[in-house]
Write a structure and sequence with these properties.
By secondary structure, this protein is an alpha/beta fold. It is 29% helix and 28% strand. The strands form 2 sheets. Strands 5-4-3-6-7-8-9 form a 7-stranded mixed beta sheet. Bound molecules: S-adenosyl-L-homocysteine.
């Protein structure tokens, strides 16, 4: 009991000190971040750091993103609740849970099978039943269920993967870090009447997106 209470307070504090002051305004995003137990998505030894203002290792040389970055990317997707969302880079599954709270259906792709299995198990324990998982190269998208109203890529890419642009619905949004191997710019692409409108949301640091339309391993 006491532990749970502590985390609820930690979440409230995270929202009040890390998200709101930096400009996250979407109430549904703030509510989801206040609700979801981020501590469940990190290994036991790091639980005490789960709500800190930085990324954390999740094994296999990958990381769970900083809370602010999760909120920023989610807000940029402008979800209303009826969307099909494609996520590339399931990792811990934390961002997946946020998306599952805010959208109709989430299709999530992870290239490291062990991470996909871990995320699937914790998200089942948390009773999410609107998420489909796939262990695959997400730079190819997930053709079977296209088009997607929103696509989020949580690993840094050298360029915009063409299959992801192709799998966007009319009016759809793609959020993806692009640039070099160690630093990138967060890019939002909106598809309007066959045109792709770009917006730069600022600098960021992600692990590499590895695949046919990403980096070589
Ligand atoms: N949203 C996750 C971020 C994990 S880090 C979280 O907060 O936990 C990025 C993830 O992208 C890693 O798990 C990595 O294995 C995965 N990844 C990298 N290239 C990929 C690809 N081509 N397809 C699918 N997943 C990929």
């Amino acid at each position: 009991m006491a532990r749970k209470l502590d985390y609820r307070l930690a979440r409230e504090k995270m929202v009040k000190s890390q998200l709101i002051p930096r400009g996250i305004k979407d109430l549904k995003v703030l509510e989801a971040m206040e609700k979801i137990p981020r501590d469940r998505f990190v290994e036991e030894a790091l639980v005490g750091e789960a709500y800190n203002d930085h990324p954390l290792p999740i094994g296999h040389n990958q990381t769970i993103s900083q809370p602010y970055i999760v909120a920023l990317m989610t807000e940029a997707l402008a979800l209303k609740g009826d969307e099909k969302v494609l996520e590339i880079g399931t990792g811990s599954g934390y961002q997946t849970a946020i998306l599952a709270e805010l959208a109709y259906k989430v299709y999530t792709v992870e290239r490291i099978r062990a991470l996909m299995i871990g995320a699937r198990s914790i998200l089942a324990q948390l009773n999410y039943n609107n998420i489909l998982f796939k262990a695959f190269d997400g730079t190819l998208g997930w053709k079977e269920y296209e088009p997607y109203d929103a696509i989020i890529v949580t690993a840094g890419s050298p360029k915009l993967p063409q299959p992801l642009l192709d799998q966007l619905a009319e009016g759809g949004r793609l959020i993806i870090p692009t640039g070099g191997r160690s630093t990138q710019e967060l890019i939002k692409v909106t598809k309007r009447r066959g045109n792709y409108i770009h917006k730069n949301l600022g600098g960021c640091r992600f692990v590499n997106l590895i695949g046919v339309h990403g980096w070589n391993e």
